[in-house]
């Protein structure tokens, strides 16, 4: 019983850390928006916040993939599916914004 629960605990910890990191990615992007409203024009700050936002998202993906491959828990499977759906929705939103911008500019 204890041998089965130890890998599940490790998988759950990996998934929870992955989830926290994935939630921090948009929060750091929100910091860019807030700093734009304050009038701060320091491009180094924007670059660092964008860098950490990307690092958090990539680390979240890596941790959930490790949890899925090594432990094969349901939590890691569901989290991976959610991440894939979020990525697909992000790509669709990006394509949609490019099309709308193209229509606005080139009418």
In short:
This protein is mostly helical. It has helices spanning 2-37, 43-71, 74-106. It has three helices and no strands.
Describe the structure.
With 107 residues, the chain is mainly α. It has one domain. The chain has 3 helices and no strands. It has helices at 2-37, 43-71, 74-106. The radius of gyration is 18 Å and the shape is flat. The model has no long low-confidence stretch (mean pLDDT 84).
Number of strands: 0
Give me the number of helical elements: 3
The string of secondary-structure elements, in order, is: HHH
Kindly, what is the distance between the CA atoms of the first and last residues, rounded to a whole number of angstroms?
65 Å
Topology readout:
Layout: H1 2-37, H2 43-71, H3 74-106
Helix pairs in contact: 1-2, 2-3
Main features:
3 helices; single chain; 107 residues; mainly alpha
């Amino acid at each position: 019983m204890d041998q089965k629960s130890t890998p599940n605990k490790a998988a759950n910890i990996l998934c929870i850390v992955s989830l926290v990191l994935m939630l921090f990615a948009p929060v750091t992007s929100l910091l860019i928006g807030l700093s734009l409203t304050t009038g701060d024009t320091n491009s180094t700050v924007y670059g660092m916040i964008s860098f950490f936002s990307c690092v958090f998202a990539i680390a979240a993906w890596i941790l959930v993939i490790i949890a899925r491959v090594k432990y094969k828990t349901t939590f890691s499977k569901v989290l991976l599916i959610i991440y894939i759906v979020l990525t697909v929705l992000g790509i669709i939103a990006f394509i949609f914004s490019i099309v709308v911008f193209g229509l606005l500019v080139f009418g």
